[in-house]
Amino acid sequence: MRELTYFVAVSVDGFIAGPAGQFDQFLVEGDHAGEIWAKYRGTAPTALAAAAGLPVEGGPFDTVLMGWNTFAVGLPELPDPYQHLRQIVFTHEHQAPEGAAGVDFTDRDPVEVVRELKAEAGAGIWLCGGGALAAVLADEIDRLSLKVNPVLLGDGVRLFGDRPYDPAALRPLAVSAYQSGVVLAEYVRH
Fold first, then answer.
1. What is the span of the domain harbouring residue 156?
2. Are 178 and 32 in contact (CB under 8 A)?
3. According to the model, what pLDDT value does residue 190 have?
4. Can you name the residues that pair with 186 across neighbouring β-strands?
5. Percentage of the chain surpassing pLDDT 90?
6. Strands 15-17, 157-158: parallel, antiparallel or unpaired by DSSP?
């Protein structure tokens, strides 16, 4: 069965973006970048990876899930951001923008969609954001991989949105600390 991995950059205080969706405080260069890319190859938009000379084939995922706000970060320049992956955007309010032919927009229940995806053959499923979608899918997440950045944001989009108090134990897999200050913390569900 396929696994759902929530792989995302996060601040030390638990935000994946600022109040206006900004994420420019997260480090994209440094000694962590190459090693994390090697492990999570294919987790950059196709055009950006090509411009940086980064291969996207052979990564752990063949499907990427995101909410509208995460998807909209790349608009209008990247309406089909992860062309090398199957792309699913969850939205109740928005229609597909021009140029997004390779993206599936759905207002279906995310839990139902993820359960169907897990039953299919294929590689891993990547939840790249956002916090509200992660809150809905919390019980379906098999792996949590956090690129913890050495910054406090103070406000913004929480890692798991407004998820109510409901403790769920995770088992640590690995923690890798880098000179850049980034820490890759990886967990699996018990």
1. 4-189
2. yes
3. 85
4. 145, 174
5. 96
6. antiparallel
